Amino acid sequence: MTELNFKRHRRLRSSDHLRQMVRETHLHKEDLIYPIFIVEGEGVKNAVASMPGVYQLSLDLLDEELKELVDLGIKSLIVFGVPATKDDVGSSAYDQNGIVQEGIRFIKERFPEFVVIADTCLCQFTDHGHCGIVHEGKILNDPTLDLLAKTAIFQAEAGADIIAPSNMMDGFVAAIRKGLDQAGYEDIPIMSYAVKYASSFYGPFRDAAHSSPQFGDRRAYQMDPANRNEALREAVSDIEEGADFLIVKPALSYLDIMRDVKNTVNAPIVAYNVSGEYSMIKAAAANGWVDEKGLVMEKLVSMKRAGADLIITYHAKDVARWLTNS
């Protein structure tokens, strides 16, 4: 054989232990944030048809879910509320006894060790399904800011450890930061949905949260999926306004954006592995078309590799089990 001069990269792949030694990206339970959907009433456990394994739960049935998370080693969750009534200004979002606030109190009283993140938006609470005040078919930016700040204050008062505003109004981080500081919650961090695209991957979530727009869509405030530089402008603005974490949503189709954001700002980056990404894998796995564990783990590792420090994912419970048994 003629002498060849080439690199033998396979030397570092020859055994499982050796592969683990040189592995560059790791996924840990501490990286996972689990979303929960809390509804009003008693004895309510509604399966979300488009999201197998995900439920809307009333407070009296929440204990079992929380105990399971504790047993699995999941330490962080994000709370979404599904109110019994809605109006045109989303008033139950900033009701001191609104469903999100009640849920936060319930969790922190029974399981104070959880890091509880409050999703801060109006869309689940408005009868029109948009993330702000609407006048003659137009979403009004500045009047909405006051309501978002008010919502965040009541969430912090209820015991939220982190406020996560998801509305994509201009100036929402600045308004919420000012409101929290003036109310004495200057130590509560903001996990901003800084880079949130007007994506087709959100459909199943809207089933779970009952938050579909009743007219039009959200492209006037969520980002165009074709845009890259816009994401960096949004991210930098939110950091300047006082955000402590930045969320990129969705995650899987926007890994390039996630890496750009990670390289641009010095803050923890959160990938939101959204409902559509979850449901596609669940549907394919149910039909025996894919290896669910292999596909999920590869997907989440790709998010970590792209720059995510944390991942919001409906797969969290399954992943925690797999990590325990690996």
UniProtKB/TrEMBL annotation:
Keywords: Heme biosynthesis, Lyase, Magnesium, Metal-binding, Porphyrin biosynthesis, Zinc
Binding site residues for Mg(2+): 234
Keyword Metal-binding attached: yes
InterPro entries (UniProt xref): ALAD, ALAD_AS, Aldolase_TIM
PROSITE patterns, alphabetized: D_ALA_DEHYDRATASE (PS00169)
One GO CC term on file: cytosol
Residues at which 5-aminolevulinate 1 binds: 206, 218
Binding site for Zn(2+): 121, 123, 131
Sequence positions that bind 5-aminolevulinate 2: 275, 314
Subunit structure: Homooctamer.
Protein name stated in the entry: Delta-aminolevulinic acid dehydratase
